[in-house]
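Review box. Two proteins, two foldings.
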Amino acid sequence: MISDCGISIRDVDPNLLRTFVAVAETGSFSLAAQRLRYTQSAVSQQIAALEADLGTPLLTRRPVTLTPAGERLLRHAQLILVRLEAARADVIRAVAPPGRLTLGLTPLAWSGQVAAALAGLRAAMPRLRFRVITAGKDRIVTDAATGKIDLGLVDGFAAPSDPLRLPEPGGAGATGIAEDPAVVAVPDGHPLAGRAALDLADLTDAYWIDAPEVAPAGVTVSEVARAGTAVSKGPRYEGADVTVLLGLVAAGHGLALLPASVLAGRTGLRGVPVGTPRLVHRVEMLRAPATRTGDEPAAWLAARLTDRPANPAGF
C-alpha cells in the first residue's frame, strides 16, 4: 500500500503489476510484450487499466519513463511479485516428494569445495535426486528469494571480507563461503605477464573481454578503480563456459578479471595478481526459506559449505 501519495495497491490485479514491472524494466511497451508473450496493444491496455485503477499516471509514453508515482509503485510491485512467487514455490515444495535438491549457481561459483560437498551429500543420502542450474546473478538471487531453488551460490569481486553487492531481494541473509585472490588473466608473452602485480586504475583503457555471464570485468574495473573513463571492451562473449573465455584470453583477444583458482594448471595463460585496490573473488550462499522436513538436503549442504559439518544420521 502506498499511503503517502494517495494511492493504494491493496486490490490491484497482480497480472497488471507484472506487466507494469516488465515495461518499467525494459523501458519499452514492445519489449515488455515480447517478454510476457503478449501483444503490444494488450500491454498498453493493461497499463491504462492500472493507471485508471490507481488514479494516477505511472509512465510517460515518448520516451517511456516512470513518473514519480510509477517509481514508488515499482519498488512495491517488485517486492509483491517476489512474495507471490515465494508463496507459489513454497506450496509446490511442501507437496513435493522428499529427498530432492535444486542448486543454482553462477558460473564462477562452482569450485572443488562445492563438488566435494555434493559428493558428501550423495554419500549421505544415496537416494537423493538433485538438479544444478547455472544462470546469471540476478536470476539466482531471485530464484533463491522465491524458493524456486533450495540453495543459491553467487560470485563477484569485492574488497577482502566485504560482502557482495547483490540485487534485491537477495542482499540480506547471504553467507560468505569462499574468497580467492583476484588476478588479471593474460596470455603468456603478454607485456603484463611478467609483472608482480597490477594497479587496476592503470588498466581502465585496456582491451577487456566483455563476458557479462562469466566475468563482467569491464564494469568491475571501472567501479573498483573509480576511474572516470569507460573501460575499452574487446569481443563480447555471451556464454557461461569459462573454458571459452580462457580460450579468448589465450588467443590474445583481451584481458579478463578472474579468481586465481580458475587459472590453476592452465597452460598458455598467466594470472597477474591485483595489487591496487586489494580485491578478492568472493562466493556467497543464499538459502531459500526452510519450511518443511524435506529441506534436509539443503540444510546438510549449507552446513558443509559453511564449514559446519552436519551429522547425516540426524537427517
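Next protein.
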Amino acid sequence: MNLQIEKEFKNLLTKEEYEQLLLDFQLEESEAIHQTNTYYDTKNKLLQSLNMGLRVRVYESYGEQTLKVPIQENEQLEVTDSLTLDEANQLINEGKIKFESHIASKLLEENVPVESLEPVGQLSTVRHSFPGEGGVYFLDKSYYQDQKDYELEFETDDLEKGLLLFEKFLEKHHIKKRKTTQKIERALQYPNS
C-alpha cells in the first residue's frame, strides 16, 4: 500500500496548446506512458456524493487500484494498492475491485459497501512528464467514449507556492486558465452509449 498526499493543479488545454508544450519541452510520443483507468462507484453514486474517486489503472506491465479522498481544494489523500497486470485485468473484466486490500478497508471505514461497487466509466491517457520549478508537470491527452481532451497537471509539495508557480507557467506559455474537473468527472459526463 502506498499513502500519499497529492497536491495538484490542473488546466484543460486546447490541442494547439498541448502540441506547443510538446515542442517546447521536446517530448517524444515514444517516451509517453500509456494508462487506462476504469472508474468504480455504486449504483446510487455514493462515492461521487462523498467526492471520492476509485479507479483500477492499467499500465503496460502492471496495475494498481487507487482511492482518492478529498482533504481540501487541490489536495487529496491517495491510497494505492499495487496489482499485477493479470490481477488488474481480471478485476476490470469481472467488474470488481480487490476486496483484500487497504482500499477496501478504507471504504468500509467510510460505510461504502464494497460489494456494491461496479465500473462506471473508462478513460485512457497518453502521459508525458517533465520537471519544473517547485514540482512535476504532466501533459495528458485523454480518450473516453467518443471524446478527447488535453490537460496540464502540476504536482507540488506546497499548495500556496505551487499555485503561484503554476499560474506563472500558464502565463509564460500563453495558456488561458480554465476551470478543470477531475478526469473521472469528465469521463462520467459522457456515459457509454
